[in-house]
């Protein structure tokens, strides 16, 4: 049933693809943090049209599937705009945009936890908008939400196989093409499943350790996916 | 405006029906698993707690798309052959159910100890305490996160495209092949359809929440 020599034959290709998966995860995570911050700050803008637009965009992106967003970005954007991006770049942008909306919720909770007095003190000290955000609010808002950000790192990692739909040659697509040569799908798909399982369990152990070490283990005890 | 691809609208309607079917069936599986595993995690017996905990940890750590591939393509090698719809419902239900179990557990945990004690003081049986005191309060807490979770579930039904189950996303791809130049239109419309479906779930849960928290 389970052929070990086939497994050994598969491993080099799969491990190489695992690198692509990790690359897409980290790039998508980094982009989602930047986009999430922009959304979180934009959703608090004093200019009403900006605030409403940002909230509507965040709502729309969160309510639609990543897969369809990837199709839209990969197949439609080159027809609508003069830009054509590689599959990998499109995938990273898709992940960044989609999880940027989730990340903005994380940042929102961090920003709302900063006491009102901090805003008032910044106003009293006549700090500029920029200074208020970068020197007063964000340095206090961000550290407590690091474990929650870590949870989204895992979510993004688990979501990378979706990128295979736009031909990013990551783990799942590699397993699929290996299986199409030999017609044996059991080993490749099982290995991919185990790789995802083990990596995300290790990630979450790491986050729990980090949380206990630095936060006393009570901050990111959220249950749901959001 | 002339939109030739709208001639294929019946295909999209067929896809919509499949999407709704998969979403409804997998919600039933997910809710059942969530209730069972969530309650089991508060059990007095360590073995039951452990079993439920293992289920939650494993299926939350698993990538849904990989699970779907495994259930549909790899299980037949073990002699278990499932139809596309069954495989999709099973994979999505198992995955979302694990997230739901955490919602159930944390909502039950959030009910103050005093409510249990008051139930005991009033000489209510354990079943009465659970059904008439604890659950009504816990369910009210569960509703908003469950609404979000069902939107996640709806979004994840688009993954059945990968096992060529002809849902909304799959049919949109078929239509795109026939009306290539209309690609942005087709995917734009597809995004709007999913948004409307998510909004239906959102509104339903808002109304439910208002109804079930009327006693507050």
TrEMBL record, chain A:
Classification via Gene3D superfamilies: MetI-like (1.10.3720.10)
GO BP, one annotated term: amino acid transport
All residue ranges annotated as the ABC transmembrane type-1 domain in the record: 18-207
Protein name: Ectoine/hydroxyectoine ABC transporter permease subunit EhuD
Keyword Transport: yes
Keywords tagged on the record: Amino-acid transport, Cell membrane, Membrane, Transmembrane, Transmembrane helix, Transport
Protein family per UniProt: Belongs to the binding-protein-dependent transport system permease family.
PANTHER family: L-CYSTINE TRANSPORT SYSTEM PERMEASE PROTEIN TCYL (PTHR30614:SF0), MEMBRANE COMPONENT OF AMINO ACID ABC TRANSPORTER (PTHR30614)
Upper lineage: Bacteria, Bacillati, Bacillota, Bacilli, Bacillales
Ranges that cross the membrane: 20-40, 133-154, 189-210
Annotated Gene Ontology cellular component terms: ATP-binding cassette (ABC) transporter complex
Organism: Paenibacillus arenilitoris
Its membrane topology: Multi-pass membrane protein
Top-rank lineage group of the source organism: Bacteria
Coiled coil feature spans: none
Predominant subcellular localization, coarse grouping: membrane
Subcellular location as annotated: Cell membrane
InterPro entries xrefs: AA_ABC_transptr_permease_3TM (IPR010065), ArtM/GltK/GlnP/TcyL/YhdX-like (IPR043429), Ectoine_EhuD (IPR014341), MetI-like (IPR000515), MetI-like_sf (IPR035906)
Keyword set includes Cell membrane: yes
TrEMBL record, chain B:
Gene Ontology cellular-component annotations: ATP-binding cassette (ABC) transporter complex
Membrane topology designation: Multi-pass membrane protein
Top-level division of the source organism's lineage: Bacteria
Domain ABC transmembrane type-1 stretches: 16-203
Entry keyword Metal-binding: no
Main location: membrane
Gene giving rise to this polypeptide: ehuC
Name assigned to this protein: Ectoine/hydroxyectoine ABC transporter permease subunit EhuC
Family: Belongs to the binding-protein-dependent transport system permease family.
InterPro entries: AA_ABC_transptr_permease_3TM, ArtM/GltK/GlnP/TcyL/YhdX-like, Ectoine_EhuC, MetI-like, MetI-like_sf
Keyword terms, alphabetized: Amino-acid transport, Cell membrane, Membrane, Transmembrane, Transmembrane helix, Transport
Organism: Paenibacillus arenilitoris
One GO molecular-function entry: transmembrane transporter activity
Pfam families attached to this UniProt entry: BPD_transp_1
Subcellular localization, as worded in the UniProt entry: Cell membrane
GO biological processes: amino acid transport
Keyword RNA-binding applies: no
Transmembrane annotation, as ranges: 20-40, 52-73, 186-208
């Amino acid at each position: 049933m389970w052929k070990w020599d086939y497994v050994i034959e598969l491993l080099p290709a799969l491990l190489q693809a695992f690198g692509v998966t990790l690359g897409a995860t980290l790039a998508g995570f980094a982009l989602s943090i930047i986009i999430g911050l922009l959304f979180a700050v934009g959703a608090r803008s004093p200019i009403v049209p900006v605030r409403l637009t940002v909230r509507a965009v965040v709502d729309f992106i969160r309510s639609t599937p990543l897969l369809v967003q990837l199709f839209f970005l990969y197949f439609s954007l080159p027809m609508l705009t003069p830009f054509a991006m590689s599959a990998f770049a499109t995938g990273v942008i898709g992940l960044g945009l989609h999880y940027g909306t989730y990340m903005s919720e994380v940042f929102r909770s961090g920003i709302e936890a900063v006491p009102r007095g901090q805003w008032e003190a910044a106003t009293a000290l006549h700090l500029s908008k920029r200074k208020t955000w970068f020197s007063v609010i964000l340095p206090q808002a961000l550290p407590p939400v690091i474990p929650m950000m870590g949870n989204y790192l895992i979510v993004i990692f688990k979501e990378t196989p979706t990128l295979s739909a736009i031909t990013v040659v990551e783990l799942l697509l590699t397993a699929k093409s290996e299986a199409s040569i030999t017609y044996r799908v059991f080993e490749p798909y099982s290995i991919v499943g185990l790789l995802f399982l083990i990596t995300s369990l290790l990630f979450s152990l790491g986050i729990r350790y980090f949380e206990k070490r630095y936060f006393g283990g009570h901050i990111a005890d959220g249950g749901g996916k959001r | 405006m002339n939109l030739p691809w709208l001639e294929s609208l019946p295909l999209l309607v067929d896809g919509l029906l499949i999407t709704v079917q998969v979403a409804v069936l997998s919600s039933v599986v997910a809710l059942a698993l969530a209730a069972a595993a969530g309650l089991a995690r508060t059990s007095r017996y360590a073995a039951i707690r452990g079993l439920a905990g293992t289920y939650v940890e494993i299926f939350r750590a698993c990538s849904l798309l990989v699970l779907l591939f495994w259930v549909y393509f790899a299980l037949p090698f073990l002699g278990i052959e499932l139809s596309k719809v069954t495989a999709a419902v099973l994979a999505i239900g198992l995955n979302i159910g694990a997230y739901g179990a955490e919602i159930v557990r944390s909502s039950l945990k959030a009910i103050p100890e005093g409510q249990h004690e008051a139930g005991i003081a009033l000489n209510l049986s354990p079943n009465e305490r659970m059904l008439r005191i604890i659950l009504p309060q816990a369910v009210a807490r569960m509703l908003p996160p469950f609404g979000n979770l069902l939107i996640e579930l709806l979004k994840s039904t688009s993954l059945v495209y990968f096992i060529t189950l002809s849902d909304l996303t799959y049919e949109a791809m078929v239509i795109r092949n026939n009306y290539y130049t209309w690609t942005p239109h087709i995917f734009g419309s597809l995004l709007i359809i999913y948004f409307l479906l998510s909004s239906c779930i959102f509104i339903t849960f808002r109304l439910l929440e208002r109804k079930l928290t009327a006693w507050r």
